[in-house]
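Re: weekly structure request thread

Next one in the queue (499 aa):
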Amino acid sequence: MFDKIKLLASDTAVYGVSTILGRFLNFLLVPFYTNVLLPGEYGIVTYLFSLLAFCNVLYSYGMESAYMRFVSSLEMGDKKQNFSTPFVSILLTSLFLSLLVSFFAAPLAEIVSLPVQNRSLIYYAAWILCFDALTIIPFAALRMERSAKQFATLKFLNIFTTVLLNVIFLTQLQMGIEGIFLSQLIASILTFVLLLPTIIRNFSFDFSSSLYRALLKFGLPYIPAGISTMMVQVVDRPILRAMTNDSTVGIYQANYRLGILMMLVVSVFDTAWKPFFLSYAKEANAKELFSRILTYFILLMTVIFLFVTFFVGDVVKISVFGFSLIHEKYWEGLSIVPVVLFGYMWLGISNNIVAGIYIEKKTSLLPPITFLGAAVNVVGNIFLIPSLGIIGAAWATFLSYFLMTALLYFKVQKIYPIEYEYLRVGKIATAGIIVFVLSIFFFQETGSVVWKIFLLFAFFFGMFGMKVFTYNEISRLRSIIKSPFQGKIIAPSDESAKF
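Done, posted below.
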């Protein structure tokens, strides 16, 4: 079991190192934007990118997950057919949709209430969506081929290009918001060009109609599910804008991004997790393996939650050469950070639990779950924002993540039951809650860095005191942590791929 966990840790480390570096560069745009843009301008950027998140679902229509599911088993067609069929489909639909959006750019800008001076952004958005969609299947192919280094390098280059061009366009060329979207478009085109060797290597003109029908049957449920998921993740921004103003959205977004560390861990884990559980789903001890991984993952997320909650307020207020992590005019939103982190934790848990849905090919169960989560988020935002402001929006998102995780757990347990390590998870949660409650009651009077560090140590001592992990297990976990950075990553053997 530990050898397989090492394998997952190795892939996660490769994805993680580059992703963390790339996302850190991307995160640097937060202090950059907050120091060069007014909250209202940042609010417009946030609003439009939240709309793009919904459009991404329509452009991909579940083909990524469908491709990964069918190429992992090759139950229909060969490897090139499994690549080419979804790629050609996305190519044709993306070109059609982007041409359509460009043609109706003016009325669409009015519909989404963009200021007159920013309506050219619709053209940029249309082709960002197109080129991003064209990279979906090539990136998925790299993941399934276990080409983690190439995948991570290209993702990093995309973000690096975006950040570099943002700095040039906003500071040197004074392009304002338009420079942000032009930067993203150029980075998207560059990424597609760099993926052309992968596309050419996997492409064939042998389009399989029967495979395409199977891909659509598997993938189309992702449209309502994906839209609902996007509603959970970003619908708070449009609702907040409608009920307040662009400045409030800008403040909300800047502080929401401070949950980046938890978001990184959750997204990096998910990137490595999906091909991992598809490869090992048929092994005899697969369910025990998946259960153990969730326990370790919850421990990691709990540590991150406590660390960021304790120190984020101190870090953002550090001034270097007159600049802080986020500008002082955004600090009023810091109270949402713990809520954001807690929401991401439940998202991370659901990413682990959802494995049973993919393994049993029951994707039709996802739309009603995500729809209910989206409905809770919408209703929660409408009712909580008037009384609580931006923290109400954060709580609404948390509630939707929690509900979806709970519903997903009960559904998956019926089709792919796993005996999770409830006692150990309960001990981790108990120690985390006690330390967090102590921080709430004593930070105002004894809010020193020393006290916060003491509470973190208290959490770890609690782990030992409650005997959450044995000494032998701790030793093996230490080797897992070290191993991703030693030697090369190996693909699963043909024998292991059979199970």
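The first strand starts at residue 319 and ends at 320. Strands lie at 319-320, 323-324.
Next request, please.
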